[in-house]
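Dear support,

I submitted the protein below through the web form. The confirmation email said the job was done, but the results page showed an empty box. After a refresh the structure appeared. I'm attaching both so you can tell me whether what I see now is the final result or a partial one.
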Amino acid sequence: MREISNKIENKINIIDQKFNNINTKISEIDNKFETIFNKSINQNQNVNQNQSNLEDLLKILNNNNSVFSNSLSNIKGDSIIEFRGFKMRADVAAKFLQLEEMIKKEFPNRQIILTSGMDGQHMPGSKHYDGKAIDFVVEPLTIEESQRIEELAKKAGFDVYNEYIYDSPYKTGPHMHIQIP
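What the results page shows now:
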């Protein structure tokens, strides 16, 4: 009985060590994210390089094959960042990068352009004001293709309002509105 107890205790110690290693890695990534974020906010020089570094880090953190999958939402995911010239939550930017990759696979050589984050005029109570929503266009895009992008956005975890098809009082042109639930 004592031998079984020792084996169980050894296994628990091994598991604890692995969790400690994972937590250490998450802390290291969190520190790198914070450093890149602070540099992009506090320095006007090299902003393009910092933005690229931030996008690369967001991709790494959100990689579905990584042990850190979805960790961005655990690591300051609700932080407001500037992403491609628009302010939004970090977790929205990370999810958008996933969606963008999906769109590029299905519609290669199309231009994907963010058009709004927390800025601009939106419906009262819009998630834009909390950094939880963004608007984007894909050029060129037919109405039928917009329906496929709507499906991809839902698959990426967004709630979607397809303003290529539907109107709203604040519509400024055909675009896709996506937000985190």
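Response: this is the final, complete result; the empty box was a page-load delay. Confidence is low (pLDDT under 50) at residues 63-75.
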